[in-house]
Amino acid sequence: MSEQVEVKKAICMWCHGHCSVAVEISNGRLVKITGNGDHPHGKALTSLVKACPRARAAAEWFYHPDRLSYPLKRVGERGEGKWESISWEQALDEIAEKLKTIREKYGAEAIATSSGTARTADEYKARFFSLLGSPNSIGQGQICYGPDNLIASAIIGWPADHMHLRPETKCILLIGTNPHASTRHAWFPIRDAKKAGVKLIVIDPRRTKTAEKADVWLQLRPGTDTALLTSMINIIITEGLYDKDFVEKWCYGFDELAGRANEYPPEKVAEITWVPAERIKEAARMYATNRPATSVSMMGLEHLANGMEALCARFILPAITGNIDVRGGNMLRPSHPQIVPESEIELNDRVSPDQKTKTLGGDRFRLLSWPGYDLIQENQKRVWGTPISRLHNCFAHAPTVFRAMFTDKPYSVRALITMSSNPMVTMPNTKLVYKALKSLDLYVVMDYWMTPSADLSDYVLPAASWLERPTVYTFGDTIGFIGAGEAALPSVVEGKYDRKTDYEFWRGLGIRLGQEEYWPWKNLEEGYDYRLKPLGYTLKEFVSKRNGYDATRSEPKKYEKIGFATPTGKVELYSTILERLGYDPLPRYEEPPESPISTPELAKEYPLILITGGRFQPYFHSEQRQIDSLRKQRPNPVIQINPEKASELGIRNGDWVWIETPRGRVRQKCEYFKGIDPRVVHAQHGWWLPELPGEEPWLHGVWESNINVLTDDEPDHCNKIGGLWPLRALLCKVYKVKQC
After folding, report:
1. Cα angle value 563/230/711 (rounded, 5°)
2. Interatomic CA distance for residues 334 and 387, integer angstroms
3. What does the alpha-carbon distance between residue 126 and residue 342 come to, in Å, rounded to a whole number?
4. DSSP state, 362?
5. In the structure, what pLDDT confidence band is assigned to residue 2 with cuts at 50, 70 and 90?
6. Count of alpha carbons within 13 Å of 167, Cβ hemisphere only?
7. Of 436, 362, 445, 359, whose CA–CA distance to 405 is shortest?
8. Ramachandran region of residue 429, left (φ > 0), alpha (ψ -120 to 50) or beta?
């Protein structure tokens, strides 16, 4: 038979690079993926995809025998690992009927959903829940991008954490992020800029590959970022290095900020952070005098109990130095004007004021819930015409939701639908999550694989991957571009598999629950045709004629014409939104809930500071552990320990060690790492073991090395503004695993 080769243009969703790729198919079978050379950024994409280990393993991933192929229904006890294969129609009928019963008995708020890292069509999930009447959506967005978006929106009026490297850029400030390991699409431009003479400042407890390239590396004590950043603000103000003209014309609350920053002189902050005062001064001066400067913080700040306050300081820095909305600085890029925005698809106006008040944790952690989102979208609509999307930025508080599942306080949560997420691995305090999931009346998981979370569910549904579904991606409508791709392979092959898109799942449930008039599009492609209609293309036309890409040209200093989307119309160094919500309107440092200073007695038993969540290749979050070619590169979970400390503890490089906190212990392999303070250890996140049995007690190895068994989700320890749970400044002890 002659070879029939075709190439489809898709959007890879295996990380947040969202690369436009060419999927090569021979006789109906996936062969390989490469960068889309026809794309406007084709040269860069070609290099990125060629270097990506996940891309090289595409066929291995797609055809893996363990991928879910048909809907499964639990027939034994929960966690027993006994399943039967059923049809989609039966699954949707039964799930809808159970949801209807729960809604009638307990109210719509008794039905919750958990999401992953924004790589599904979440705007349609929001639509379903808006129509259902439940405000209880939880997900990784509460500690990933959501806090960043909402603080930036409160202070500046729009998300501003996108690195804007241009020939004009003279300085890059990276705060708690390691693009070399996490966002390679960002790392290569940073590397090239550094070679061209651009200054690089890195704030990170670890000497990562990124930190190695820095002109100034600030190795701070984990969790003390707010103090460090506010001290940099203090230096810039007291030395007169701020942009006086921009501050006078376009900033609100400068005098109040100066007063607060005065509480953080570098000598005092050096004692708090372990960073010498002269290094803090050097970094502040370098950032303030090399303009335009761009800055990125990513998740390093969002994983801290004091993270929202740190983010306040982080966005004040570019504001007072005149680096907001200038070429080479932190540009504001409003939604693309020729696409139906996600906020419109979400039908947010269908969530009644009464239901909003039932959002679990929303009365306490108000900025990242309806109270904060409503204040912010009001200003964004006035200035930009449309707000950022809700589902990435407005949440119930996950630890509070899980507690409600087994305490029935403040009310019962009886059902959870998990979409593209794995809460048994990715949520804090795994023991509590386990107890919560076991107590549900209905638990539904839609995923590619049987995960530790799916092991505990009532229904497991096979999801179509990005290779099997179309994609339109706008990053929550926050950066003024549209990326689109077609489905490269069928999601249904008779006799082999029957997978569906998340859109088909939500629509199927919605129709069964009386929402039919709000689901006019029969499939995801029709839904995307509707969203692209203002641009004048169908999805297929947009991919074929425009290579699935369009971006607005964002002019600098837009504020001179329209102001900022804040209540005062200026950058709010003193945030009136935070003040209105009942919080301190200025950044203020607080010790981590566990630290040698805040809990000295606990530190006697647990003397090391534990940080988690640092990204590492070749995996993305908790994914790809079952892919042999990737697992060979990183076969075991690793904890980085300074060799000096490890030797003191009698631990050799490569030894298995126990990591213990007040919440339990797990084991990982010791890796000597000189780039970490002897008082700090870093443990990898996202580890479960697909090779182990799925039934209890194994649950695919979720108790073995999963660092979230040890992390803290106590609401009193979460960030008071946004509810962020602390992942990067805990106390632990480490000791060698005794061989049997």
Report:
1. 105
2. 9
3. 9
4. T
5. low
6. 0
7. 436
8. left
What does DSSP say about strands 571-572 and 251-252: parallel, antiparallel, or unpaired? parallel
Mean pLDDT of 272-301: 96
As a whole number of angstroms, the distance between CA 36 and CA 43 comes to 8
Q: Is the pLDDT of residue 646 over 80?
A: yes
Q: Indicate the Cα dihedral angle 563, 564, 566, 572, nearest 10°.
A: -110
Region at 664 (left for phi over 0; alpha for psi -120 to 50; beta for the rest):
left
Torsion angle of C-alpha atoms 265, 267, 268, 271, degrees rounded to 10: 150
Distant-in-sequence, close-in-space partners of 596: CB < 8 Å, separation ≥ 6: 603, 607, 609, 731
Question: What are residue 18's DSSP bridge partners?
Answer: none
pTM above the 0.85 mark? yes
Q: 363: alpha, beta or left, given left = phi > 0 and alpha = psi -120 to 50?
A: alpha
Question: CA nearest 263: which of 239, 236, 227?
Answer: 227
pLDDT score of 1: 52
Taking alpha carbons only, the member of 569, 484, 458, 395 closest to residue 71 is: 458
Pairwise CA distance, residues 121 & 610, whole Å: 35
CA distances from 596 to 230, 370, 601, 677 (A): 22, 36, 8, 15
Q: Tell me the CA end-to-end span of the chain in Å, nearest whole number.
A: 57
The span from the CA of 1 to the CA of 4, in Å, is 9
pLDDT digits (tens, 9 = 90+) for 619-630: 988 999 999 999
Does residue 690 register a pLDDT over 70? yes
pLDDT per residue over 337-360, tens digit each? 999 999 999 999 999 999 999 999
Q: Which residues pair with 666 in a beta bridge?
A: 659
Helix (H) or strand (E) run with residue 89 in it: helix 88-106
Residues shown for the chain:
740
List all residues 6 or more positions away from 567 whose beta carbon is below 8 Å from its beta carbon. Answer: 379, 576, 577
Which tokens is 650 given? Answer: 């009698």
Q: Which contiguous run of DSSP H or E holds residue 417?
A: strand 415-419
pLDDT at residue 163 is higher than 90: no
Closest CA to 438 of 428, 420, 421, 452: 452
Q: Which band of pLDDT confidence, cut at 50, 70 and 90, is reported for residue 179?
A: confident
**DSSP character string of 246-308:** HHHHHEE-HHHHHHHHTT--HHHHHHHHS--HHHHHHHHHHHHHS-SEEEE-THHHHTSTTHH
Q: Which pLDDT tens digit goes with each residue over 112-132? A: 999 988 678 889 999 999 999
Nearest to 325 by CA among 196, 452, 152, 584: 152
**Cα torsion 238, 241, 246, 249: sign:** positive
Residue ranges of domains in the chain, CATH in brackets? 5-62 (2.20.25), 72-148+335-550 (3.40.50.740), 160-331 (3.40.228.10), 600-736 (2.40.40.20)
Q: What is the pLDDT of residue 326?
A: 96
3-class SS at 498? strand
The residues, any chain, with a CB within 8 Å of residue 149's CB and separated by 6 or more, are: 159, 161, 388, 392, 393, 476, 478
Q: What is the pLDDT of residue 211?
A: 95
CA 740/CA 738 separation, integer angstroms: 6
**Kind of pairing between the strands at 680-683 and 608-612:** parallel
Contact 45, 35 (CB under 8 A): yes
Residue 173 token pair: 């400030």
Confirm if 603 and 31 have CB atoms less than 8 A apart. Answer: no
| Assigned token pair, 616 | 């590492």
Backbone torsions φ then ψ of 474, nearest 5 degrees: -130, 10
- Pairwise CA distance, residues 658 & 426, whole Å: 20
Tokens standing for residue 19: 């690369």
